[in-house]
Amino acid sequence: MDEHQPGKEPPSSRTLFLSFLLLGATAFGGPAMVEYIRRLAVEEKGWLDEASFREGVALCTTIPGATAIQVAGYVGLRARGVPGAALAFAGFALPAFLLMMLLAAFYLAAMGNSMAASAFQGLQALVVAIVGAAAVGFSRNTLSGLRPILIAAVAAGLFLAGISPVLIILLSGILGVLLVTPLPVPEESAGAPPAPAPWAVAAIIAGALGFLLLLLIFAPVLAGIFSLMAGIDLLAFGGGQAALPLLYHEVVQVRGWLDAATFLDGIALGQVTPGPIVISATFIGYLVAGPLGGIVATLGIFLPSFLLVIGTAPYFPRLRSIPSLSRAFGGILSSFAGLLFSVTILFATRIPWTLPLAALALGAFAALLYGIRIHWVVIAAVLLSLLFL
To answer: Nearest to residue 270, comparing CAs of 159, 374, 142, 175?
Structure first.
């Protein structure tokens, strides 16, 4: 399944893993990392041509899951098949996973410390700004026309009324079929990679089901964490940010595993780490069930994304040309714009606002819209929190 450029040797497994490990260690900015993956895979290494990479980006922005890590997996798939996809996924996610495990342990140890409390108070306000800016950016890229805006507004209203996000997503898909113009198909297509051997995909799925069965027998709490995170990943159309409303609904409102303030802290720590924003799942799993919970939550939040990349990449050019599917995807993407706005409102109502906190949140929101890299905004928010809160 090697799809590298003619005249270029496919990367070794070691080179592929280490390249994405290094990139993952500096992967601040979520979807913005797609451009850095392009530079690595197309310009520096020549593993893919430009058209092939664009095809991968189109795929990864259509299927549910965290976009940047899926693009990394797609590059690995084109370069070295399913093993290459696994190495790229693992390398890209590993730095964020290890750092989040350390931060979750620190969080538990630092509870009650006044300086830590000030820092997290500022970070909670920062999360409101981050999610608000994400909602604005997501809407700019998604809501073109009155009908998508209407779907987004309906989704936001239903979520604020307490309706399950799963039902909202299903309704939005139906509304998309009825109301939305099919998503545009890129003019230039690089074609699809050959389909992976059916036994390889079946073996991964069988292994995941066997793992879940063992957890159900010996560790039901871990089984619940794994299945919840996997289900959320399967529904997160529009990238990792789209998982936030689902996580909040299930973790805080339905199961009560964390209170709203602690959940906000976890999202804030997810911004401190490099890598996908859904790495906050590691924090949630750690606080619910310790280190094993963090490991299981991480596997759950990434495994469906991996399977979707290797399972749909060969068939994507055909699937995206089906008008009804394209309209349904458009409706679902519109709904996530509304869900992000509604989560911003919910997060904002959970914070005891003061004038300094409001100023910090507004300043961060403006900086993010202006294009300041998120890690600089996070660092500034922590320092200001320690000085003034």
So the answer is: 374
Q: What is the pLDDT of residues 256-280, one digit of tens each?
A: 999 998 998 898 888 777 777 889 9
End-to-end CA distance of the chain: 55
Contacts of 251 (CB under 8 A, 6+ apart): 228, 257, 258, 263, 284
pTM of the predicted model, to two decimals? 0.81
Which structure tokens are listed for 373? 């890299």
* CA–CA–CA angle 19, 134, 316 (5° rounding): 60
- Amino acid occupying residue 95: P
94 CB-side CA count, 13 A = 13
Domain locations in the chain as residue ranges: 13-388
Instruction: Give CA–CA dist 136/130, Å, rounded.
Output: 10
- For residue range 43-71, list pLDDT tens digits in order: 888 998 888 888 887 788 788 888 889 99
